[in-house]
Amino acid sequence: MSLNTAHINGGVLIHNGECILVFSDKVTIEWLESTNDPAFKGTKKGRIYLTTHRMIFNSSSNDDKMLSFSFPFVTLSNVEIEQPVFGANFIKGMVVAQQNGNWQGRQTFKLTFKHGGAIEFGQAMLKAASLARRNGQNAPPPYVPSMGQSYPAPPPAYAPPPNGYYGWVPPSNVFPDHPPQNSVYMSDAPPPYPGINQQQGAFYQQKYVSNTYY
């Protein structure tokens, strides 16, 4: 998992061939382990993206020390969906840092959906992670910055196939909103860790990179 590596131009930055499955614009995230790193202090408001390869949080504040946070599935463990008697439902889990990912160690996160959807998002995340594990690799690779260009992502990057993945369809009925226009960007680099659609990067690069879809 890496800190401040998944944002650009006020939007989210994904890999070539990575697709957004679910998006929510009204979440908060808290970090529960004691740390001296100011990026992990306080409750943060923002957007959450579930993709074919990871979960991404983007802060709604341009002044936050944590503008974005990337959670590759291979870095997650002990993920639980909590339903307290009082208060909003939330997702709790542990994430481990990627080497060279701008922070070190491990952290416990609490992701809260103030307007509902925590259960459906959590179930979708666990399902996506389970499908991604079929492609192997249990340890996170070191983070390597993309040296290529970035560009507005083509529509397939945020429109999951209608037939789903291996028979599983993401809960778009619960999360009908799409990311705002001109807020999703894609790099030339393919995902360095396993995902659901491991073989689709070349298809996107060949078919869509040279065209404009906004």
Question: Which terms summarize this structure?
Answer:
single chain, 214 residues, mainly beta, four-stranded mixed sheet, 2 helices, 32% strand, disordered C terminus
Quick overview:
The chain has about 210 residues and is mainly beta. The chain contains two helices and twelve strands; from the N terminus they run ββββββββββαββα.
Would you give an account of this structure?
- The protein is mostly beta strands and 214 residues long.
- It contains two helices and twelve strands; from the N terminus they run E-E-E-E-E-E-E-E-E-E-H-E-E-H.
- It has helices at residues 118-132, 201-208, and strands at 2-3, 7-8, 11-14, 20-31, 44-51, 54-59, 68-72, 76-82, 90-96, 106-113, 150-152, 184-187.
State the helicity in percent bands: 10-25%
Strand order of the largest sheet: 1-7-6-5-4-10-9-8
Shape call:
globular
The H/E string reads: EEEEEEEEEEHEEH
Weakly predicted, low-confidence segments: 199-214
How many angstroms does the end-to-end distance come to? Answer: 30 Å
Main pleated-sheet profile: 8 strands, antiparallel
Indicate the proportion of strand residues: 25-35%
Number of discrete helical segments: 2
Backbone CA Rg: 16 Å
Average pLDDT works out at 85
Number of E-type strands: 12
Helix-strand category: mainly beta
